[in-house]
Specification:
Chain lengths: 174, 323
């Protein structure tokens, strides 16, 4: 059965671990959990394909694990907190995994993070819903209207009083 | 009576724990993060809470995918730090407060929040990292400064509880705490976030504008946050940024009007925007005196018209509503 389209499937580059993926990916995630034990890590490393047979995995899931295709694992029901344990078994840092999933080198990825991370601008929607959430938009609108009286050259007595009271409030908070 | 005096919001990035455990806190990258918590640690030392309720999430440690409780309250006497693949963190075993925890469980379940009760549970970085950030580094063989009641929230599998549900649970927890007879000074932590995505091709997403708006409203107008749909968190603050709903449990447990004691924000720690806030309830004595005085005035006015008994009943109702 094809996946039912969900509202959050519109978010680009994102596989939301929902109840359906949780059901499909149970085997992937239980395999990853097993790697918390040293003896299991050794058994897996000794013969990966054989080790995977004890989990109920589809052939696609097995292939994604063997190829370390992390995005495909997420798509097929893996969850990042679980698949990260496979990464750790391979001796990789989390940032390495993140870089792999984004298709960047770890250096470039680390630089992007130091530079403030990936911007949300242009990364909100596949279908072009690129306006910020109403919550942010409302906040921004409120700020604009709050800033207006201050910007005016001739404040009326009323707006003046307002800005003073808001100033004293913020002073208190500090 | 037990009383919640303050709420603390804090990220719980695992790399922060690793930096503490591996002695990297003085490196410039990490110093930038840790310096933001120095004042908070001093504040906490002065406050000396009797118990901390810590809202956090488990990261495929205690719960895996075999059981996914939406809200799970730790009622055990102790919570050992879990082995998350690199050995347990070198921090003390977290001591619980079973008497208050089981009281909270009983109270909030009858208040229609169907909690899972955990009488045996290990805890991961989601809880011990914020503890380190607020209590400082504590030797493995020593003790944390106060006992802790863990409240684990599912934010790993979609859907987590809604922001509104979290906020209302906070209120139920507050009612539970205030109906506990022992005089206890309680703090409540909301942990996780702020904006971050660590999965898929969009990993690395940070939205400082969102984070700032979230902190502003958390402080002054939490009702605005309660209405945010999950898809907005995931779209704007990253797939894993949805952890921020846990902060609303903390906020719900506080008074409607609070004082913002402290705030800190920095990008990044590893893959995450680090956010931290301290919100304090205003001192109870001051808060109660004013409405009591007003209510008394109103009651006197009514007494002139209505029988004294009814007026007193109304005054009492006003007091309760006005709280």
């Amino acid at each position: 059965m094809a996946r039912k389209e969900q509202v959050y499937d519109d978010i680009p580059g994102t596989y939301v671990f929902d109840a359906e993926r949780s059901r499909q990916g149970f085997g992937i995630n239980m395999f990853c959990m097993s790697l918390l034990k040293e003896q299991n890590r050794k058994a897996f490393k000794a013969n990966e394909a054989e080790y995977l047979k004890q989990f109920r995995l589809t052939s696609e899931q097995t292939e994604a694990i063997l190829k370390r295709d992390y995005n495909r694992m997420l798509e097929l029901g893996g969850n990042i907190y679980f698949t990260a344990k496979l990464g750790a078994t391979d001796g990789h840092s989390f940032q390495h995994l993140a870089a792999v999933m984004t298709g960047n080198s770890q250096d470039d990825y680390a630089k992007m993070m130091l530079g403030g991370g990936r911007s949300v601008e242009g990364n909100r929607s596949r279908s072009g819903k690129n306006t910020p959430s109403a919550f942010i938009a409302r906040g921004a609108a409120a700020k604009k209207s709050a800033a207006k009286p201050k910007a005016k050259a001739k404040p009326t007595a009323k707006s003046n009083a307002k800005s003073i009271s808001s100033k004293s409030k913020s002073a208190k908070r500090k | 009576m037990a009383r919640i005096v303050a709420g603390i919001g804090s990220s719980h990035v695992p790399a922060i724990g690793a930096a503490i455990d591996n002695g990297k806190t003085e490196e410039p990258y990490w110093k930038r993060v840790f310096s933001g918590f120095e004042k908070s640690q001093a504040w906490m030392r002065e406050l000396k809470p009797d118990v901390a309720i810590i809202v956090y999430n488990d990261h495929a440690t205690a719960f895996s995918v075999e059981m996914i409780p939406t809200f799970a309250l730790g009622c055990a006497a102790e919570f050992p730090p879990a082995d998350e693949g690199w050995g347990p963190r070198p921090v003390p075993v977290v001591e619980g407060y079973p008497a208050l925890a089981s009281h909270i469980a009983q109270s909030v379940i009858l208040d229609e929040f169907d909690l899972t009760i955990c009488n045996k549970m290990e805890v991961d970085h989601g809880m011990t990292v914020p503890m380190n950030l607020l209590f400082g580094k504590v030797d493995k063989n020593s003790h944390w400064p106060c006992p802790v009641i863990p409240l684990a929230v599912n934010v790993v599998m979609y859907p987590p509880p809604t922001g509104h549900r979290c906020y209302m649970l906070g209120k139920a927890i507050r009612r539970a705490v205030e109906s506990y007879p022992e005089d206890l000074k309680v703090v409540i932590f909301g942990t996780g976030g702020l904006s971050h995505q660590i999965s898929g091709p969009r990993a690395g997403l940070i939205n400082s504008k969102w984070d700032k708006a979230f902190l502003d409203n958390l402080s002054k107008d939490p009702q605005k946050l309660v209405k945010i749909p999950h898809v907005d968190y995931m779209r704007e603050a990253g797939a894993e940024g949805i952890e921020m709903v846990m902060w609303l449990i903390m906020r719900g447990a506080l008074d409607d009007k609070v004082d913002e004691v402290y705030r800190f924000y920095t990008v990044p720690a590893s893959n995450t925007a680090v956010g931290h806030i301290i919100l304090a309830n205003r001192p109870r004595a001051v808060r109660q005196r004013a409405p009591a005085h007003k209510a008394a005035k109103r009651a006197t006015a009514r007494k002139a018209k209505a029988p004294a008994k009814r007026a007193a009943a109304r005054a009492k109702a006003t007091l309760i509503r006005g709280r």
